[in-house]
Amino acid sequence: MAALFWLPRAAWTVVVAVILAVGGWEWSGLTGLRPLARVVYAGALAALGLWITNSVDAASAKLIAYGAGTLFWLVLAPLWLWERPRFTTPAVALFAGALALVPAFVASVDLGGARPSLLLAIMGLVWISDTFAYLAGIRFGRHKLAAAISPGKTWEGLYGALVAVGIYAVGWLVIAGQSQPAAFKRAALGPMWFVIVLMLLALAGVLGDLLESQMKRQAGVKDSGALLPGHGGVLDRIDALLPVLPLAALVFLQ
């Protein structure tokens, strides 16, 4: 929070690059890479993200990154979850890591640079979704959402998350007033379209959560890392943010 609101854009970019590098380190660990290769991979992802945000034609580079991230999360990730393949070499999983992590990094820099409160509001969407999915699942959960991937997740938890995000979206509209994106003002459904979009973003966050759960299950580990005592690794904390951030950047910044 302090870094997001108080640091200049360059320093905020460095902070997010460090998170990206740690995420790359953990992702490559789930694919079975050795420590030296993991360092190279993490550094390469950070370098790629920094190059995109600081390239001569940054606008085009960012748009390509967002498009690649959107393609991955809306097409490739669902297929990956459906088929649940085991890769004999980590190359495909490492390429997937670049598609998952780098666009989220670019979006974090872009959204935070445009308006820190906007990035915080989008992260809040994911936190509310995760929290109420857990609470509703604990209280009402009966039907498994993806038992083979993450046995603790239920359809009832998902419904609870969507209801909470819908309420959050209405509150956002009330607070934002006329500052909401122009695209929503022109949409046929008006403010209701904004609520629908935020609920769709929450569904995308579920994809990120499930994909990381699948990778951990295939790797035979409980957490992606041990950097955060009691919480696992960085990926365990940002998995749902990975698909939401580039999609939100396309919605709010284009």
Write up this protein:
With 254 residues, the protein is mostly helical. It has one domain (2-253). 77% of the residues lie in helices and 3% in strands. Strand 1 (144-146) and strand 2 (150-154) form a beta hairpin. Helix 6 (116-140) packs across helix 9 (191-219). The relative contact order is 0.14. The mean pLDDT is 88.
Summarize the structure.
The protein is mostly helical and 254 residues long.
Number of DSSP helical runs: 11
How many strand segments?
2
- How do the helices and strands follow one another from N- to C-terminus? HHHHHHEEHHHHH
Global morphology: globular
Strand line-up in the sheet with most strands: 1-2
What is Rg? 18 Å
Overall mean pLDDT: 88
Count the domains.
1
Low-confidence stretches: none
| Alpha-beta content class | mainly alpha
How are the SSEs placed, and which strands pair?
Elements lengths: L1 H5 L2 H22 L4 H20 L3 H26 L7 H24 L1 H25 L3 E3 L3 E5 H22 L5 H5 L4 H29 L14 H5 L2 H13 L1
Antiparallel strand pairs: 1-2
Jot down its keywords.
globular, 254 residues, mainly alpha, two-stranded antiparallel sheet
